[in-house]
Design a protein that fits this description.
Largest sheet: 6 strands, antiparallel
Shape: elongated
Number of helices: 0
Mean pLDDT: 96
Order of helices and strands: EEEEEEEEEEEEEE
Oligomer: single chain
Number of strands: 14
Low-confidence stretches: none
Length: 159
């Protein structure tokens, strides 16, 4: 069992507290089997709402899959207590925003999409953020200024 953290880095403009919204947030990942090194060709998603039993009654995980190449059963689970927000103080620095417990596979790529939210700096405004294009721009009516998330990058680290 390995714990792997997803780190992001972004340039935040007049927003803070960038975070996934709700337990139904979908983390889109490409995964690699650690037994045979086979990588998934497309992104798969995992969410806190999904729970699948592990073989042999050893608990459950967010996703359980059988490798297409070596037929090994692998699993990945989201560690709910590791989910953190990315704040303006973290702007342009890597920060771990979620951790995964991996058994037999590991994430190799991340695709940020819809489901993120953030708040205006010194503003009551909240925004729905779509990072599909790896950046997002809007306008804060309360503060009458532009807001945005730019230059989104990510990597994975062992926790």
């Amino acid at each position: 069992m390995v714990r792997i953290g997803l780190q992001i880095q972004a340039n935040l403009e007049n927003v803070t507290n960038l975070r996934p919204e709700g337990d139904d947030f979908r983390w889109y990942l490409k995964l690699k089997c650690q037994n045979c090194q086979e990588e998934s060709k497309s992104f798969v998603y995992i969410s806190l709402l999904e729970s699948h039993p592990l073989k042999g009654g050893r608990g459950s995980a967010s996703m359980v899959s059988k490798c297409k190449l070596c037929s090994r059963e692998n699993s990945i689970d989201i560690l709910k207590d590791t989910i953190k927000s990315y704040d303006i103080d973290n702007s342009n620095q890597m920060k771990t925003i979620v951790g995964f417990e991996c058994r037999g596979l590991e994430p190799v790529d991340f695709s940020p999409r819809v489901g993120f939210v953030c708040s205006g700096v010194d503003s009551p405004s909240t925004f729905q953020v779509d990072l599909t294009e790896k950046e997002w721009v809007d306008y804060d009516e309360n503060k009458q200024e532009s807001v945005g998330v730019y230059e989104v990058e990510w990597n994975f680290v062992k926790l």
